[in-house]
């Protein structure tokens, strides 16, 4: 995917190896609105997002899972959009394990929505997941968020919880990578 993006002039420069602490993926402006990104913003890979969330409970369940199902080759995945002043104005958090990519969070600041940043984040994250060996991706989202965004990117609904939160639905989606 990154090679294709370079060929299509979406990427300005080669991407550094995945094990680097941070890598910048600068995006060229493209004629269509979907591909349009301002040059002063960039998407960066963050190798080790905040570790404290897992703590003892996360380590305990991970150990149990390895004993039952084998090494999951767990890796966190994080891309962020930096503004010119380095403020984080969007990003994507996920995990790869057992040949799956779990897309946990995708957010873009309100004033940047509709300008292709979510699309770009999704594309680079799916590509990174493929490079790690993921064959599928899954996520959940709410009806007041953007389930149509994922459906337009080839995701299929495989589950739904009604009235969660009250008056809305929670959707579970998957896609083959």
Describe this structure in words.
It is a single chain. This protein is of the alpha+beta class and 177 residues long. It folds into two domains: 2-134, Aminopeptidase, CATH 3.40.630; 138-177, Aminopeptidase, CATH 3.40.630. It is 24% helix and 33% strand. It is built from four helices and eight strands; from the N terminus they run αββαβββαβαββ. It has helices at residues 2-7, 55-69, 117-131, 147-152, and strands at residues 22-25, 42-46, 75-82, 88-97, 100-108, 136-142, 156-162, 169-176. The chain has an eight-stranded mixed sheet. The longest helix has 15 residues, at 55-69. The radius of gyration is 17 Å and the shape is globular.
Give the helix proportion (percent range): 10-25%
Can you tell me the CATH topology of the largest domain? Aminopeptidase
Order of strands side by side in the largest beta sheet? 1-2-3-4-5-6-8-7
The overall average pLDDT, rounded, is 82
Put simply, the count of helices is 4
Taking Cα atoms only, what radius of gyration do you get, to the nearest Å?
A: 17 Å
Q: Structural class of the secondary structure composition?
A: alpha+beta
Determine the N-to-C terminus distance.
11 Å
DSSP strand content: 25-35%
H/E element order? HEEHEEEHEHEE
Number of domains: 2
List the main descriptive attributes of the protein structure presented here.
177 residues, alpha+beta, Aminopeptidase, 2 domains, globular, disordered N terminus
What's the helix and strand layout?
Blueprint: H1 2-7, E1 22-25, E2 42-46, H2 55-69, E3 75-82, E4 88-97, E5 100-108, H3 117-131, E6 136-142, H4 147-152, E7 156-162, E8 169-176
Parallel strand pairs: 5-6
Antiparallel strand pairs: 1-2, 2-3, 3-4, 4-5, 6-8, 7-8
């Amino acid at each position: 995917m990154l090679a294709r993006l370079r060929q299509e002039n979406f990427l300005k420069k080669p991407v550094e190896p995945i094990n680097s602490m941070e890598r910048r993926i600068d995006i060229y402006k493209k004629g269509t609105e979907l591909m349009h990104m301002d040059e002063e913003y960039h998407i960066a890979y963050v190798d080790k997002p905040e570790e404290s969330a897992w703590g003892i409970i996360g380590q305990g369940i991970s150990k149990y899972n390895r004993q039952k199902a084998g090494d999951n080759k767990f890796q966190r995945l994080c891309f962020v959009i930096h503004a010119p002043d380095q403020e984080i104005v969007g990003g994507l958090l996920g995990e790869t394990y057992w040949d799956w990519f779990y897309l946990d969070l995708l957010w873009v600041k309100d004033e940047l929505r509709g300008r292709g940043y979510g699309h770009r984040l999704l594309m680079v994250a799916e590509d990174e997941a493929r490079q790690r060996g993921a064959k599928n991706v899954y996520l959940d989202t709410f009806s007041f968020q953007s389930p149509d965004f994922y459906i337009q990117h080839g995701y299929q609904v495989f589950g739904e919880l009604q009235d969660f939160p009250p008056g809305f639905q929670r959707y579970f989606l998957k896609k083959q990578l």
